[in-house]
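task queued by scheduler; priority normal; single chain, no ligands, no partner chains; default sampling; output format set to C-alpha cells
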Amino acid sequence: MNSRRHLCSVLAASLFVAQGLHAQTPSPAPAAPAIQAAPAAADDPQLDADFQAIVAKLKTGDIASIVDKMYTPFITAVGGVDVVKAQAAQAQAQMTAAGLKIESFNVVKPITPVVTSVHEYRIIPVDSIMDINAKRIEIKSYWLAIRDVGTKSWQYLDGQGLSKNPQVKEQFFPDLKDTTFPTVQHQILQ
C-alpha cells in the first residue's frame, strides 16, 4: 500500500505543471529578455491536437479531464482512473487556494523523437509562466508523449514528475534508460 501511495504522489507531480513549486524555493533569476511565445506545433496532427486540448484544459483549471490522456499503465499502477481523478480534483483545489494561475504555456521546438522496438516517444519541451500570489515563475520543463509502435494514439506524462522521480522512468520506460531528459528549471521573474 505504501508504494501505491508513493506512486499516487508521483502522479500528482506528473499531472500538474505547477506541482512542487511550493516545495521548492526558486532563487531570483537575473534580468532576462522577455519570453517569446513559440508556435504550438508538433510533428504529427494527432499529437498537436492532443497537446492543444491539454493546454486549454490546464489554462481553464480542468485538470481532472487530462487524466484521460495520461499514460494508461501509470494510471493503473496508482489505483485507476477514479483514484487519479480524485487526486486531480484535490490538487486543483490546493492550486486554486494557493492562488496559482497559468499565464502562458507554450510548446518549444524542437520536439525530440525517440523510437524503440516497443514505443515511440516525443520529448516535448514546454515553457510556462505561472502566477502564484503575485509572484511570476517561469518553468522550463517537458512532457513525454508515448505510444506503442504502429499505433496512432498518444498518451502523456508531465516531465516534472519524471524528473523528480527517476524510478518512474525505470519502471515504466526501461527502453529509455539511455535517454537524457531535459533539465527542469524554475525561475522567479521580476
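post-processing summary
- The beta strands are 100-107, 112-115, 119-132, 135-148, 155-158, 185-189.
- The chain has one domain: 2-189.
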